[in-house]
Amino acid sequence: MTDDHSASFDQHDEFAHLPSDPALRAKTLESLLVDKGLLKQETLDAVIERFETEVGPHNGARVVARAWTDPDYHRRLLDNATQAVDEMGLLGQQATDIVAVENSESVHNIVVCTLCSCYPWSLLGLPPAWYKSYPYRARVVREPRAVLSEFGVELNDSTEVRVWDSTAEVRYLVIPQRPAGTDALTEDKLAELVTRDSMIGAAKL
Amino acid sequence: MDGIHDMGGTHGFGPVPYTENDPPYHDDWEPRVFGMVIAATLPERMNLDYSRHSLERIPPDVYLSSSYFERWMYGAIMRQVEAGQLTMEELATGRSNQAPAPSNEAVPPEAIDPYRFAPFRQEIEAQPNFNVGDTVLTGNPQTSGHTRLPRYARNKHGVIHLHHGAHVLPDTNAHGGGDCPTHLYTVKFSAQELWGPDASPVDHMFVDVWECHLESTR
Hints:
CATH superfamily of the largest domain in chain A: Nitrile hydratase alpha /Thiocyanate hydrolase gamma
Oligomer: heterodimer
Strand content of chain B: 15-25%
Structural class of chain A: mainly alpha
Mean pLDDT of chain B: 92
Distance between the termini of chain A: 47 Å
Number of helices of chain A: 11
Radius of gyration of chain B: 20 Å
Largest sheet of chain A: 2 strands, parallel
CATH class of the largest domain in chain B: Mainly Beta
Largest interface: A-B, 94 and 115 residues
Helix content of chain A: 40-55%
Order of helices and strands of chain B: HHHHHEEEHEHEE
Shape of chain B: globular
Shape of chain A: globular
Radius of gyration of chain A: 20 Å
């Protein structure tokens, strides 16, 4: 370590003088950044807009639906998901190195970030509150079956649970099992069935 | 650092507040904070590892009583203050101590680059020390600085499951110590190795670990 900064915020009272209401605190920070020439309002608006429209679980759903319908793509996705996702133009912020893991009758995968809340933004959008919650971060590595059961996912004792803790810049995408009775559906229709939570491993389809 | 953020395996938190189709934001100010962190001029030393470490340095009682986007806001404040771009006094009063600055130099919308912290993966000459299938023992880093090896996976036996090439090393990069690209692996641990004999005999946990935190047990 070459540091430096760890002393700057050792005192608990550093934050005590800030406006206590988070909405007011956010407003104060925003207007100071703008006043100081560190932030353009239109850039802020563009970022929010982009994450509300372009970025979201519909992207991951397209990858899953293609893997379900195209055996070559399925193989490429399992061999090298970074390249396979790049083929579809879907690499991006918080998703530059991807590993795809596939659920089956014998294996159930579920993804977490115990240390913060790393998540494949460009494939799934921003994470839901439960994914970022302390109980999820604390418990899913120690007792994944209990957590899955609370989510309504019941597994046989013989089904292997695999928990992926995102501790580096590798992001994990769960390929859920394709629901029965969907053989006649097109790739686009299949993509509509794929939920965000199923691509985290928190739900089955 | 052995901080409050390192939550894997902690008891006592109760049920997960799971709701299907939970939206990414729950209050109007949350997208503003998210956007600010992405859109504002980055402090000179900003990188993802420094950013994560700033969140880890939030005092534990404040960390636990704050929501995700409140923590983002505290982290952003810490980084701007440490960069000398903002003072706590200005935040307390809401008034800038400087004359208004032109925003010409702030990041324009078209310059928001989704890869701006990348590349995390870099080519290095050193060959990897481990092959897929090798058995390893994880380290037990004792540092007040940043590391991404969670407590529950320290000093544990595992198997190299994937090799990802060399990635920027958070332990140095968070502290201005250089990006030191180092071979990165996904290590597979049995649930019983991590959580004892009462854990499921068939389950596994996978953690991404840099080579400097791994020893061979061949």
